[in-house]
Amino acid sequence: MKLPRLHYGWVVLVTATLVVFGSLGLARFGYTMILPDMQAALGIDNAQTGALATANLIGYLVLAVIGGMLASRYGPRAVIAAGLAVAGVSMLLTGLAAGFASAAAWRALTGVGSAAGNVPAMALLSSWFSTRRRGLASGIAVAGSALGLIFSGAVVPRVLSAGGGDGWRVCWFIFGGVTLLLAAGSLLFLRNRPGEVGLKPVGGATEEAVAGQGTGGLEWSRVYRSRSVWHLGLVYVAFGFSYIIYMTFFTKHLVTEGYTKDAAGDLFMTMGWVSLICGLLWGTVSDLIGRRWALVIVFLIHAVAFSLFALWRTPAGFTVSAVLFGLSAWSIPAIMAASCGDALGPRMAPAALGLITLLFGIGQAVSPTIAGAMADASGSFVSPLLLAAGVALLGAAGAFLLRPAPAVPTEGMDASASGQGHR
Fold this sequence. Notes:
Elements: H1 8-26, H2 30-42, H3 46-74, H4 76-94, H5 100-128, H6 131-141, H7 143-163, H8 167-189, H9 207-211, H10 220-224, H11 227-248, H12 250-256, H13 261-275, H14 278-289, H15 291-311, H16 315-328, H17 331-344, H18 349-378, H19 382-400
Helix pairs in contact: 1-5, 1-7, 1-8, 2-7, 2-8, 2-12, 3-4, 3-5, 3-18, 4-5, 4-8, 5-17, 5-18, 6-14, 6-17, 7-8, 7-13, 11-17, 11-18, 11-19, 12-13, 13-16, 14-15, 14-17, 15-16, 15-17, 15-19, 17-18, 18-19
């Protein structure tokens, strides 16, 4: 009996997941585990550690829109590979930083590479998976961030212990080397669209999927005139502002509350293991009940997780918070990526995702510095974490107001019809 041939879309999905692992899991979230030792070695305060995170996120912000536009015009494959290469080299240079200024410069450049890798990789799935499989695919891809938490939680404490005062530098060298390998892998295995290998999207070639592979001119105005896309972007701001406070200061808060670095790493790794399923879970839920309701539920879970981390300062409270966040952590980026494909079709999805990531990045860029300054002023991370919880509640309210979606538009539809993009 002849076994069915594996659709190449699944190869693209696995590769995209590894791209997310490098561009976010290592380049962004790896900082959380390295932070206490890096802070001590460079002699910087909490506001400056927040500013390093902000520098990274500003770099991400700069490339978010441009990366999506370049991917829509020239194809995601080349942009993703170049982005990972920039991120990898920048992490190597971060390991050589001598002070705050140089560390900030290299963290900013890492953010540039991260955006060029992550945004097109997530949007690429709209070309390879039909509407009914898009949430599932996006949900699997964002598990790359969870892999980053698992890898960091397992590796970083051991490297820090073995490397002494320079252990944090060795961690950045490891992260950079792995990301450079992933850049080569993405160039080798990614393809821009199913037609390049004589295939249709996974789940069948819908009218939308076929239209998305056309060769006509790109209608950029459809992105910027879409009410749905702008509304999505404003909701995404709330996620960017709130979750990055929790993630940036996760280990630092635990150490302040008496955790050892190894114990904090174990909990960070536990959160990573739990979060492996979150994108798959909530991407599928969003396919079934609609993007709007899935977003509302996830934002409410985040508000509870952030509040518990601030107020229930015991091992039980920290663990419940980490598990709750892990169960929902990367679901919002997955739902947003699927929503952009729903609203504007697969060919313009990278540009739409780039625009909403720009707005997301604004929230993400300003909050670590604010949170660090609040922590310095109050002597703890309780008030920044409660701020994150409040902003997550605003995100739930904004998601609730998303309009129901009409039939999925094709590439040739008028922009006004695509301005109401969600169930």
